[in-house]
Amino acid sequence: MTYLIRHPLEVLALTGQHLVLTFGSLAIALIIALPLGVVVARNRRFGGPTLAVLGVIYTIPSLALLAFIVPILGLGTLSAIVALVAYAQMILVRNIAAGLRGIDPAQLDAATGLGFTALQRLVRVEFPQALPTIVGGIRIATVSLIAVATVASYIHAGGLGDLLFDGIHQDYPQKIIAGSIAAAVLAIAADLLLRSTERLVRR
């Protein structure tokens, strides 16, 4: 706690970097996961192998994945974002597909009977109905990315991981504690905010 109290501006700046890295990666991951989740929900023959591949990626240790990406993309933020986007896919795609598959078929038939096109039905009926499950996936993915993003500091991507790795290299426990507390507070705050959003959407 001592380092956190004495260097609040440094911790705040690194927290800002951590937020940009996390939510920037989450936004890109959602752009990829939304159409992929729709395809997985529609086509079970494609969905099973896709989720299996994403599950394998999700189980790869973060340092191992970064070690694989860095020789291709180099050190820095880009490699970190690619790794974070890859990690988020399993959670996001699974929840999007589960939400879409859980819709009452009667609602889909009613929308078709009203003359909705497939795209109109997806946007105006399916996504709104699946939104609570999708937001739940976003919540889980966000907390996971906050944790994994700390490791991204190892490849010079910045964020709160700088405090952790600097503390280890300098044998300075107060830095490690400061980074750990800041990351934990960030994860808890994100979880509470998105949990509230999830409850609101369910209503």
List the helices and strands and how they pair.
Elements: H1 2-6, H2 8-42, H3 44-59, H4 62-73, H5 77-101, H6 105-113, H7 118-149, H8 161-169, H9 173-202
Helix pairs in contact: 2-3, 2-5, 2-7, 3-5, 4-5, 5-7, 6-7, 7-9, 8-9
Overview of the structural elements:
This protein has 203 residues and is mainly α. The chain has a single domain, classed as Orthogonal Bundle (MetI-like fold), CATH 1.10.3720.10. Helices cover 85% and strands 0% of the residues. It has 9 helices and no strands. Helix 7 runs antiparallel to helix 9.
Query: Low-confidence runs (pLDDT<50, min 5 residues)?
Result: none
- What is the C-alpha radius of gyration, as a whole number of Å? 20 Å
> Number of DSSP helices?
9
Regarding quaternary structure, what we see is: single chain
Highest CATH level, the class: Mainly Alpha
According to CATH, the homologous superfamily is MetI-like
Strand-residue proportion: under 5%
Strand/helix succession = HHHHHHHHH
Ends apart, CA distance between termini: 40 Å
Name the helicity range: over 70%
The total domain count is: 1
Going by helix content, strand content and strand pairing, the class is: mainly alpha
| Mean residue pLDDT | 89
CATH T-level topology = MetI-like fold
Please provide the count of β strands: 0
Q: Judging by the overall fold, what is the CATH architecture?
A: Orthogonal Bundle
